[in-house]
Structures are given as C-alpha cells and as structure tokens.
C-alpha cells in the first residue's frame, strides 16, 4: 500500500507542467495573418508544413505561455503544443520555446530541443520525462477546435474514428 502511494506520488511529481484549461477555436487558413505573421512560407497554409504562434491576450486564454500550432511537413497533420518549456518549468523558471526551421522547437534559456512530429519529447536532454504540453483538438473543415475541458474527449474520439475511417486520410 505504501509502495503504491510512493509510486503514485513519483508519477505525479514526474508529470511536467501543471494542467491548465484551454478552449480556443481558430481558422487554420487565417490564423497566421490574424496573429500579424508576415511570413509567406512555412505558415499553416503552406502545403509543405508550417507553424503559427498564438499568444495569450485579454481576448483568449491559450495555455501557459500561448500555443504553437504545428503542421507536420511530411504528413500534413497538425499538433498543438504549449510554448512553455517543461525543463525550465521544473527549475521554477519560465521560458517559451521557439521554432527551428525543421521538426523541432528549442528553448533559448536551457537549449533543450523538442521533437514536434512525435509527442513533444526532448531530443537533447537527460531529462527524458520533460515533454512539451500537448493539447487535444479536432478539425472541422478549416476550423480547429482546441479543447481540453471535460467531456471533450468523446467528441475528439468521434472525430478521430471518423478521420481514420476515411481512406484518403491514411495515404
Ligand atoms: Zn528551457
């Protein structure tokens, strides 16, 4: 019993960043422009993959330090990560990762790079438990719904099974 509790405590301590509620909807074809992004390439409209930062302000609450919406250049699939660096967070410091021109984002303070194509895991750190916080979402046409509130997973799972039942999405 005590051993079980110790094990649970260890797991809880290892889990990186304190959970935060995220509920946000955006049009992935417009969001770069809305965020004042002047780039022409490597945006979410680029068929070869891209990214967009969405920062917190008075009109929206998007995670701890804002979010990074990422479109995989190889599969075209999206991922949504919190910008907060989990390695710095463990040392009670706050830092935001920045995109590299590739499949990774790097923290300017601790220099840890995270793989965005996988699950946001660190690629050059001894701390293999420090993942970027990833948020669930679903896409309806061009509209991305990011939501980690209770009851959301059901909708997300429906979307997921729908998505994978379409053979076009499995190519
Ligand atoms: Zn860091």
Care to describe what's here?
With 171 residues, the chain is an alpha+beta fold. The protein has a single domain (22-170), classed as Rieske [2Fe-2S] iron-sulphur domain (Rieske Iron-sulfur Protein). It is 21% helix and 23% strand. Strands 5-6-7-8 form a 4-stranded antiparallel β-sheet, with no helix packed on it. The radius of gyration is 17 Å and the shape is globular. Residues 85, 87-88, 95, 107, 109-110, 112 line the site of zinc ion (ZN). The site of zinc ion (ZN) has 8 residues, from α3.
Brief account:
This protein is 21% helix and 23% strand. The protein has helices at 2-14, 31-34, 86-90, 152-165, and strands at residues 23-27, 50-54, 67-71, 78-82, 98-99, 104-106, 113-115, 121-122, 137-140, 143-147.
**Average pLDDT, to the nearest integer?**
86
Please give the number of β-strands.
10
Which descriptor suits the 3D outline? globular
Gyration radius from CA atoms, angstroms: 17 Å
Helix content: 10-25%
| β-sheet strand percentage | 15-25%
Main sheet properties: 4 strands, antiparallel
Which fold name fills CATH's third level, the topology?
Rieske Iron-sulfur Protein
Domain unit count: 1
**Roughly how many Å apart are the termini?**
48 Å
The hetero compounds bound to this protein are: zinc ion
Please provide the ordered H/E string of secondary-structure elements.
HEHEEEHEEEEEEH
Structural class of the secondary elements? alpha+beta
CATH class division: Mainly Beta
CATH-level-2 architecture: 3-layer Sandwich
Strand order of the largest sheet: 5-6-7-8
Identify the CATH homologous superfamily: Rieske [2Fe-2S] iron-sulphur domain
């Amino acid at each position: 019993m005590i051993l079980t509790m110790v094990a649970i405590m260890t797991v809880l301590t290892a889990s990186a960043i304190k959970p935060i509620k995220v509920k946000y909807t955006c049009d992935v074809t417009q969001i770069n422009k809305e965020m004042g992004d002047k780039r022409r390439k490597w945006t979410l409209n680029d068929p070869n993959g891209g990214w967009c930062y969405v920062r917190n302000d008075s009109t929206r609450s998007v995670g701890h330090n804002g979010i990074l919406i990422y479109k995989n250049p190889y599969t075209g699939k999206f991922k949504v990560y919190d910008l907060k660096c989990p390695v710095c967070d463990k040392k009670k410091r706050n830092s935001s990762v920045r995109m590299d021109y590739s499949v990774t984002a790097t923290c300017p303070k601790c220099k840890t790079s995270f793989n965005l194509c996988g699950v946001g895991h660190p690629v050059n750190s001894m701390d293999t438990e420090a993942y970027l916080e990833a948020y669930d979402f679903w896409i309806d046409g061009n509209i991305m719904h990011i939501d980690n509130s209770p009851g959301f997973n059901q909708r997300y799972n429906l979307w997921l099974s729908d998505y994978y039942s379409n053979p076009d999405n499995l190519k």
